[in-house]
Design a protein that fits this description.
about 140 residues, mainly alpha, 10 helices
Length: about 140
């Protein structure tokens, strides 16, 4: 699909009523359409997409790692019971500078040591998250 054809498809898709968008997001089987819904600015549409049985971890990971990103889809991924418990998704969310800091602060304690080290080394992340990761790393290296 050409760039102009994709832009026309997006314009047509997002001009529909909210109820139609939510229903299509929840039921679509088309991976390209899922990718378009993933960048929707309306959190309700993203929430319904995350309930889609055909949605794959790979696509959710791409949404979580996307930069620049709107914070709403990232927060919806975190709120999703289906996706927020997966380590790769947590890591992608925590390393995304567009994730609200208060959400990131809840994810950091759930990361692995390697993920914490990556978080500390990332210059694009908020200083408070990096400090939280440093503290957790220091606590995990102390003898009991």
């Amino acid at each position: 699909m050409s760039a102009t054809a994709a832009a026309r498809a997006d314009a047509k898709l997002f001009s529909q009523p909210l109820g139609v968008l939510k229903s299509r997001a929840r039921l679509t089987q088309n991976p390209d359409e899922m990718a378009r819904f993933a960048v929707a600015s309306n959190a309700a549409v993203v929430r319904e997409l995350l309930r889609n049985a055909r949605l794959t971890e790979d696509l959710v990971l791409r949404i979580a790692a996307r930069r620049p990103a709107r914070p709403e889809p990232l927060v919806e991924i975190w709120r999703s019971d289906r996706w927020s418990n997966r380590p790769s998704i947590r890591r992608a969310l925590a390393l995304n500078p567009y994730l609200p800091i208060e959400v990131g602060a809840r994810i950091v304690p759930l990361l692995t040591r390697a993920d914490l080290k990556d978080l500390v080394a990332d210059s694009g992340l908020h200083q408070s998250l990096k400090e939280q990761a440093r503290t957790l790393l220091a606590l995990s290296t102390r003898p009991p």
